[in-house]
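Researcher: Structure for this, please.
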Amino acid sequence: MDTDEYGENPTVVTQLDVTVKSVEYVTPADIDTTNEPEHGQFARLTLTVKNVGRSPGDFSAYGMMKWESDDVAAQDASTLEELDGPDLNTTYKPGQAVTGSLVLDVGAKGGTVSYWGRITDSAPSLTIALPTS
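Model: Predicted structure, token format:
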């Protein structure tokens, strides 16, 4: 979204369509790292991000993904763990798409992961229910 020079009157300039292809709980060995998850469990999300709007749009997951459960308030789920394959974090021109994976650090199996497109958003752009097993 863009705003006027006063930071008001938001207008949608593009739209990214995000499709969840798979969610898998993984161990450090599965993702070729010696790092342990800080919050409890690594989860690999495979997503397709596509720009279905009329202007370029950015997708950046780091710092924008939060995990929560019925018992635990929203916590940052971002990691710096990198996987082989396409990078989802990029600028998408209209019509462009990428399918790739990212690793999150979630508190436990289950709960939800939310993507906040901008820090100032009042609600997440995307919410994904995670499997319990």
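Researcher: Any notable elements?
Model: DSSP finds no helices and nine strands in the chain. The chain has a mean pLDDT of 90.
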